[in-house]
Amino acid sequence: MLGESHALLEDFAEYKEDIFLLLETDKHFHDLSDLYHKLDKRTRNLEERGQPMEDQAFNTLKAERAHLKDELFGMIKKQHDIPAVKPNAGDD
User: Could you tell me which residues come within 8 angstroms of residue 47 by beta carbon, excluding any fewer than 6 positions away?
Assistant: First the structure.
């Protein structure tokens, strides 16, 4: 659907806690996330206005957004797969 948001928290809602943790603790993830959301907003705005730019440039913008999303998801999945540290019942 044209103009549809692809925000990380919407597309990867099941990883919400991991996304928030990465945003707070990983500057690289935070920076990539900011760039991704700016590209997503720009792409949606162009779609809603009928794409007033060359097809090649628009496709490049969408490809860059997809590449960033893949990279961010890899980081999210890696964080998600880290086993949670659970306290031992006998530790006091």
Answer: 2, 3
Mean pLDDT for back-to-back runs of 10 residues, the chain (92 residues): 74 95 97 96 85 81 95 96 68 52
Q: Per the structure block, which two tokens stand in for 66?
A: 């997809």
pTM: 0.80
- Within 10 angstroms of residue 90's Cβ, the number of other Cβ atoms is 5
Instruction: State whether the Cα torsion 19-21-26-31 is positive or negative.
Output: positive
* 8 A C-beta contact, residue 68 and residue 36: yes
User: 18-29 b/e with 16+ CB inside 10 Å = b?
Assistant: bbebbeeeeeeb
Query: What pLDDT score does 5 carry?
Result: 74
Determine the Cα–Cα distance for residues 42 and 59; give it in Å rounded to an integer: 13
What count of other Cβ atoms lies within 10 Å of the Cβ of residue 33?
21
